[in-house]
Amino acid sequence: MRILKKLANRLLGRAPEPPPLWHPSRGEDYSEFWTSMSTTKEEALIATRGKVEPEDQGLITCEYMARYIVDALEIDKTKTVLEVGCGMGIFACLVGHECGRYVGVDISPNMVERSRLFTRELGDHLEFRTLKRSDLGDFADETFDAVFFEAVLMHVAREDAFNYLCEAHRVLKPRGRVYASFHNLLNPSGFRHFLRIASSADRTGRHAVGRARFHTAPELRKYAEGAGFEIDERHSRLELVENDSKRHEARSLTIVGIKSERPDWGLDQEHPI
């Protein structure tokens, strides 16, 4: 049916229909994928919030997580904060007014522009930038007091998630704090989400580059410690959450880390496996 529609559109001179959301053809890299997923406000809302809802409702929905992030990262008016994956600007609003300076970055220029528009009346202490690639190379060492990734690293490959944590370690000041959330594979609700992703797989080896990924608590501990973070056990949620709750925080794992010495793994960079 899709082939017939493509032929009809070509013969009639119509613009081709965009592929379904989360389809592999949405993009071959993170920038291309998320830019394709945010060409309209409705698509961007579905991609980031899972549904189309008024922006003020998004603020209400995310208020609990924002308070948690502010508390866990010890954010106050003296702190400079970096959000990686600023999306529609919801957390820029909720966290940005709690800190002295907020910088939001995203791999998609569409998302950066939507964040700017959403926060345009909140003050000039908020700044937004488009990432050129999946790192924080635009920023010097020891620039920020806190870095957070809310519902971001769960959409990148394991290697990229680890590299982002390493970059967060680099740009954080001594004893700076990082927060990151991930899907919990071992939670019943999280596993059902995994099954939905698996059942919709392309079966040709092609996958949506921005699809959800799923992790376990021991893996995340290893990533954080390997990147040079001391785990803040009081604020992290790395226990095996087994209750079958539909609440986001019950089916998610979160890392809150404090910058410490980066371990030397003695890797041979010239001969990767």
Notes on the protein architecture:
It contains 9 helices and 8 strands. The chain is α/β, with parallel strands linked by helices and 273 residues long. It has one domain (56-259): Vaccinia Virus protein VP39 (Rossmann fold). Strands 1, 2, 3, 4, 5, 6, 7 and 8 form an 8-stranded mixed β-sheet that branches. The longest helix has 18 residues, at 55-72.
Count of helical segments? 9
Report Rg: 19 Å
CATH H-level superfamily: Vaccinia Virus protein VP39
Helix content: 25-40%
Which consecutive residue ranges, at least 5 long each, have pLDDT under 50?
none
Q: How many separate domains make up the residues?
A: 1
Binned strand content: 15-25%
Please, what is the oligomeric state?
single chain
Provide a compact summary of the structure.
It is built from nine helices and eight strands.
